[in-house]
Write a structure and sequence with these properties.
70 residues, mainly alpha, 3 helices, 69% helix, elongated
Length: 70
C-alpha cells in the first residue's frame, strides 16, 4: 500500500493539475454563487482534489496504473 501513495508527478504534471484545480475551483465558486450550490459543488470537489494532487506530487490515475500524458 505504501507504493500506492508514493509521489509520481514531475514538475509539469504538478503545474497542470494545479491550474486545472484552480480553474475548477473558481468556476465552481462562481456557479455556486450565481446558480445552484449543488452544481458548484460538482466542480469544487474535483478542483480541491486536483490541488491536493499537485501539492502532494501524487496522481490517483497514475497510482492505479493508468498512463497520463503529463
Amino acid at each position: 500500500m505504501s507504493n500506492f501513495f508514493r509521489p509520481n508527478l514531475d514538475r509539469h504534471g504538478r503545474i497542470a493539475r494545479g491550474v486545472i484545480g484552480a480553474l475548477c475551483l473558481i468556476a465552481g465558486i462562481i456557479i455556486a454563487g450565481d446558480y445552484e450550490w449543488w452544481a458548484g459543488l460538482i466542480l469544487v470537489v474535483p478542483g480541491l482534489f486536483a490541488i491536493f494532487e499537485a501539492l502532494s506530487r501524487w496522481c490517483l490515475l497514475r497510482a492505479c496504473g493508468i498512463k497520463t500524458k503529463l
